[in-house]
Amino acid sequence: MIAHLFGLFYNPQKEWEKIAAESEGTIKRSLIYFIFFAMLPAIAMFIGTTQTGWVVSGSEPIRITVASAIPLAVLFYAAIIGGLVFIGLMVHWMSETYDAESFPIKGVVLMGYAFVPIFLAGLLAVYPVWWIDIILAVAAFSYAIRLVYLGVPTMMKVPEDRGFLYASAVFMVALVYVVVVLVATAILWEYVSFPIFTN
């Protein structure tokens, strides 16, 4: 599993081929790793917002209370897991359209590997410097999109031209999910888990 993570950064095409060659049982067992990897950004965000804080134009660091950060971290984790599962299941659901070889967990694992740059970039929330975090988040999302476009044809065993359309459909599903999460965030912050600032 860890070897795959390094391989996806230095030779992603070859690494996708190795992942695609694994047995169904091995692919299913790797799902547990992504459940834990998804905790990294949520834990980092919790630490960053409650302990480190962020600075706005030279002022004292702004922090939120631990009590208000816990539900936010849980919701953040739920949003990440929800994205992983929903998009992964959509990968499986669309497999019939593209004559792909699939089973439900295969799509989720594919998306788990593609989300790895996002999980790792999320660790920077421990020290929230907004301009650095935004640059690295854009880089992580861009690389995740690249991994989707490389991984879908290989993992789902479809021709490259069909794989491009398949990956584009997956990307569109991901965009819809992001919009839904943004709307849900605005509603939840207003009515369910509003952050309470310490200063």
Structural features, described:
With 199 residues, the protein is mainly α. The chain has one domain. Helices cover 76% and strands 0% of the residues. It has helices at 2-10, 12-20, 24-29, 31-37, 39-52, 66-94, 104-122, 130-155, 160-191. α1 packs antiparallel against α2 and α6 packs antiparallel against α7. The chain is elongated and about 55 Å long.
Offer a concise description of the structure.
The protein has nine helices and no strands. With 199 residues, the protein is mostly helical. The chain is elongated.
Question: Which key terms come to mind for this protein?
Answer:
76% helix, mainly alpha
Give the termini separation: 43 Å
Give the low-pLDDT segments.
Answer: none
Shape: elongated
Secondary structural class: mainly alpha
Q: Give a count of the beta strands, DSSP E runs of length 2 or more.
A: 0
Residues in helices, as a percent range: over 70%
Oligomer: single chain
Largest sheet: none
The number of distinct helices, counting runs of at least 4 residues, comes to 9
Order of helices and strands: HHHHHHHHH
Count of domains: 1
Question: Into which percentage range does the β-strand content fall?
Answer: under 5%
Mean of residue pLDDT values: 90
Determine Rg (CA atoms, Å): 18 Å
